[in-house]
UniProtKB/TrEMBL annotation:
Keywords: Signal
Pfam families xrefs: Peripla_BP_6
Organism: Streptomyces lutosisoli
InterPro entries in alphabetical order: Leu-bd (IPR028081), Peripla_BP_I (IPR028082)
Name of the featured protein: ABC transporter substrate-binding protein
SUPFAM superfamilies for the chain: Periplasmic binding protein-like I (SSF53822)
UniProt family annotation: Belongs to the leucine-binding protein family.
Domain Leucine-binding protein: 46-374
Gene3D superfamilies (UniProt xref): 3.40.50.2300
PROSITE patterns: PROKAR_LIPOPROTEIN (PS51257)
Length: 428
């Protein structure tokens, strides 16, 4: 069965980004065409799509670019094979600089001036232009739910789906819901019983830590909470305490740099855990560099998500993705999800047939299709509009563990790592 939108994971990403931008400011905005997708020379006009990415932002230049790079690679391959019914896909890129002002500028340029048929693989720190996209009835396909936009507006379709009414109000009465499947997995499949939750003494970090703690307690865990100072964090003290408390798992509400420091501290004090659990954004090939000073902790890094492990080349769809992205220096789960988002648009466009590829036709496909799996790359993505939030849900998840020399190794099948779990509410 389909997994609902992983609202808890989205909240985690939003917290980490908020922490990273606390002292930042908007950097220059730019937009440009994909140089590898030339304009159509005669024949049918190209199909124009837009990709908005916070490529230059206060949290760093490469944080958001994975979905964009995956989507571009898919469209390049699609065009090399004749496009969609003989029409090339012309990709227009726009970097919103990580600001709401820049995001609105990108929306205006792509939606109003360039008249794109759809947006694909949106990855925006501040999706301020979401309401304008929705008002223009432009389908936004396969975006990353960093904020609540994909659970708020019609015509917006995040990569993980949504069950919310999407009538202009966030979720149900301002609340979103997430399941406890991650915690259930580690309890049932790995035998974990005690979990540590590490956060900063900062409001967003502390709020997310409370959400994780709520989910863990709902699954019967003993929870150890560790809070460190945001300005002068003492990770060694936190690591020593979670070791003393016998933590099996470590979850966190801290940034990537803090995670690396925490892992080093865990190695230094000899803390041994079943898993140091991270999210899909950190499911990348850069682990050896990011965690170079903590080999023991590095090899208990686990990631969970809703898409097939990008290292699982035994799967034909993953092999296609890896072949199409072999020119990239690094690989990540977000790249694979961007590739899946582009595939989703292509399937929607192909459904238009003789009618022609229009915003309305593509949107109709998104609204009336079955849960979408991108050839098996995604846990089937549902889009429903439920008047009331579900109290429980059958949820599946993709799980991988880092192992030096092997990379990310899949743990079971994402189609069978499934659990009937409660849905817990929170306010984004």
């Amino acid at each position: 069965m389909s997994r609902p939108a992983p609202a808890v994971e989205s909240a985690a990403l939003a917290v980490l980004l908020l922490l990273g931008t606390a002292c930042g400011s908007r950097l220059p905005e730019s937009d440009f065409e994909n140089p590898s997708t030339p304009r159509q020379q005669g024949g049918a006009a190209p199909i124009r799509v837009g990709i908005i990415t916070s490529a230059t932002s206060p949290v760093g230049g490469s944080v958001f670019t994975g979905p964009r790079d995956g989507a571009k690679a898919y469209f390049d391959r699609l065009n090399s094979r004749g496009g969609i019914d003989g029409r090339r896909v012309e990709v227009r890129l726009c970097d919103d600089g990580g600001s709401g002002v820049g995001n609105n500028e990108c929306v205006h340029r792509l939606v109003d001036e360039d008249q794109v048929v759809a947006l694909v693989a949106t990855t925006a720190l501040d999706y301020a232009g979401a309401s304008r996209v929705s008002h223009a009835r432009v389908p936004d396909i396969g975006g990353q739910p960093i904020g609540p936009a994909y659970d708020t507006y019609p015509h917006l379709y995040g990569i993980y789906g949504s069950l919310a009414p999407r009538d202009g109000e966030v979720g149900w009465g301002g609340k979103l819901y997430g399941g406890t499947e991650v915690y259930r997995y580690f309890k049932r499949e790995q035998g974990a019983r005690t979990a540590a939750v590490v956060s900063y003494n900062q409001s967003a970090s502390a709020a997310y830590a409370r959400l994780v703690t709520q989910g863990l307690k709902a699954e019967g865990y003993k929870v150890v909470t560790e809070q460190v100072d945001f300005a002068l964090p003492n990770f060694r003290a936190a690591a020593a305490d979670l070791k003393e408390q016998g933590a099996d798992l470590v979850f966190d509400a801290i940034d990537t740099h803090g995670n690396a420091q925490l892992c080093k501290a865990m190695d230094d004090v000899g803390a041994k855990v079943i898993a140091k659990v991270t999210n899909v954004q950190n499911w990348t090939s850069t682990v050896p560099t990011d965690y170079k000073d903590s080999p023991r902790c590095r090899n208990v890094l686990w990631a969970t998500g809703s898409s097939r492990n990008y290292e699982d080349v035994s799967d034909a769809a993953v092999r296609e993705f890896r072949d199409g992205t072999k020119g990239l220096k690094e690989h990540s789960q977000w790249q694979l999800e961007g590739w899946a988002a582009a595939m989703w648009f292509a399937d929607a466009a192909k459904s238009c047939g003789r009618v022609g590829v229009t915003r309305a036709c593509v949107d109709d496909f998104m609204n009336h299709g079955e849960p979408y799996a991108a050839g098996g790359l995604l846990i089937p993505v549902p889009y429903e509009r439920l008047a009331e939030p579900p109290k429980t849900r059958r949820a599946c998840l993709s799980v991988a563990r880092w192992q030096d020399g092997r990379g990310w190794v899949s743990q079971g099948s994402m189609n069978t790592n499934c659990f009937d779990v409660p849905q817990l509410s929170y306010r984004p």
